[in-house]
């Protein structure tokens, strides 16, 4: 059961705040009861009327907006310290902190780095301080700020160490700029010494640690399980103990998808972060780029900058927006002309015409939903709309509609291929009335089954707020069994129409070739094949082009496995856009190659020109 309590205003106490009392504390302090006063930072005394002389507002001893914190309120000595803002240090915040600018190559920019600061001492063991910092998506460099003087700085990412800064004597307020490259990569000792030496005990093996620096003049540093060694200018190695085990959030791993959780300090951590496994990313590894389930959010979302207007977005965003608008305009023109062509009574006497008329309508819907999806992603990531209910509704509905419409379009093309194959095989025995009757039922059943096959998608979607990146993501959370089912059903809806189109093209070619061979035995096989391909090109062009358009999607899924870097999404983005090309090509694939469809299409164009005049 829940319990309630009352939080009383100053001057009132009791269980229900119905008891009054007189407060003798200063006006800017808080009365806890009649005898206890909670003083503000720079005041002290039983009633908080005394002020610390060094921390008075008009005598603040801290510079650069540092905050004065008194140690001892009962003496007049300089018992205070300054809490400095970022980028300042010193007892009075009088110095700028050391700033280190680290640049990365475009092909090796990590999402998170560890900075190992090594501080040497004359009279005691060296000190290591671990910090980590996330690298923003649109940056290829990072600036580290550090207030304590240090001697060595190692940058770690992807389980590799790089010797970045070496300082025998520390310099206050120093500005350093350096590049991360292979020349400063620390080598593992197993790659430098032979197996005989490596099998020695630790102390005996250490005697040979001078050899790597002497033999490898370009070597800067190396390490084993216990020590880190640095090669000096005289090619001697200086080794010190180095703990490679990073903190793991003390067992409280909040990272998703088996990501590794890290904290900057074991005793009193101030920040934490996640290192994601391959194919996963996001501040908590919440996004994945595996297989056909990859959505536009995952592929392209990070390229859209939050809180920045569209005119100031990156060039890739503007280019994809232009391409999407062009696709919508082209789709509307293509779809309307196709609908006007296939609604002819003569063309609707067979199932093929019904399939193509339905697909003409579906093509407009598909590209329209895709355009809505694209610009919703732009608006949501720019934070132009923040209504959670609306974003959640879009998250649940838009992606699954796109999947259903794309698959429905592919299956309608497959139905056309099957009917054309039957026409070629059966010839004059093909029953047009039966074909028309079956098509009406096939379309409804097909749409129902496809919709049911994707029912797991909307119920597994939810919004995820990434506070670090200030973004809201639409993510899928599948159980292990649902992941397997999702992979199967996506492959099924792509592979099966693909195979049907291949078999259709083969069967039509074989059938018409057999017929011609029987009637013209004197002609050569090669000549006959060319003649038949020319005469039946309207039956072969559409399945062949659909096969070609399906190949990139299959290659991307099977060979690349996943999009490994969110910074280079172009392969997946291209594959994603290619999947929307078939709905744009009804006129090119089916109308222009066919003499019957083309005549009806030309008639429609003439009527449009007549009315426009």
TrEMBL record:
Keywords: Disulfide bond, EGF-like domain, Membrane, Transmembrane, Transmembrane helix. One of its GO terms (cellular component) is membrane. Its main location: membrane. It is found in: Membrane. The chain crosses the membrane at residues 319-342, 354-379, 391-416, 437-455, 491-517, 538-558, 570-592. CDD domains: EGF_CA. Residues 1-18, 51-94 form the EGF-like domain. Gene3D superfamilies: Laminin, Rhodopsin 7-helix transmembrane proteins. The keyword Ribosomal protein does not apply. SUPFAM superfamilies: Family A G protein-coupled receptor-like. Residues 334-590 form the G-protein coupled receptors family 1 profile domain. Disulfide bonds join 8-17, 84-93. This is Uncharacterized protein. It comes from Adineta steineri.
